[in-house]
Structure to design on (197 residues):
């Protein structure tokens, strides 16, 4: 009888810990909601720093860091990808085309920037993905899934669009899993959702 009682207690303890773990799970960033605070290591490439409009930064274990809200742009498109994700690989040409369409538009070039975070990918894997798919915008490693957990452990590819304001505040205007489809339609919807014309 004591053994049965003990087994029941253990089972209840396990069920309770699972329930508590689920209740603590972070949900993906929601449109209109708050974006999790985090910092990225400042790109070493001068072209990438210039693209993001970054200078200086905060020292973090010997490396300078920055926040997405410090990017000198009204809109930041964040792609969460994985080098090993076949959907991310298939979407890479579209994301590159989106970057080119933005950069070739004088009205949008300085107003919209794109960055990518490799969920579970180390620096080597991120660089391999960048070279293989000729990604022209900055990509950052998240080898330990630290940022991925902050994003609610979303599947990939996942796109989040932030609207930055001059006072340092921001608003999430888009947050969705999967391919965004037609490049022109996606860009038009981002411009409308962010309220930039």
């Amino acid at each position: 009888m004591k053994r049965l009682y003990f087994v029941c207690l253990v089972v209840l303890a396990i069920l309770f810990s699972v329930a508590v773990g689920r209740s603590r799970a972070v949900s993906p960033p929601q449109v209109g909601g708050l974006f999790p605070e985090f910092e990225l290591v400042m790109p070493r490439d001068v072209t990438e720093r210039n693209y993001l409009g970054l200078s200086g930064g905060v020292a973090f274990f010997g490396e300078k860091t920055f926040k997405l809200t410090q990017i000198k742009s009204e809109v930041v498109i964040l792609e969460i990808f994985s080098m090993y994700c076949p959907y991310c690989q298939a979407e890479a040409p579209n994301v590159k085309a989106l970057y080119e369409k933005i950069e070739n538009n004088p009205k949008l070039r300085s107003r919209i920037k794109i960055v990518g975070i490799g969920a579970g990918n180390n620096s080597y894997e991120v660089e391999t993905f960048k070279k293989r798919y000729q990604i022209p915008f900055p990509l950052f490693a998240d080898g330990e899934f630290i940022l991925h957990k902050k994003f609610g452990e979303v599947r990939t590819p996942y796109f989040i669009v932030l609207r930055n304001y001059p006072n340092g505040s921001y608003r999430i205007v888009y947050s969705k899993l999967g391919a965004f489809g037609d490049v022109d339609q996606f860009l038009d919807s981002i411009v409308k959702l962010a309220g930039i014309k």
Remarks:
- The first strand starts at residue 40 and ends at 41.
- The helical segments are 2-24, 46-52, 86-103, 123-132, 146-150, 183-194.
- Confidence is low (pLDDT under 50) at residues 5-24.
- The CA atoms of residues 160 and 175 lie 4 Å apart.
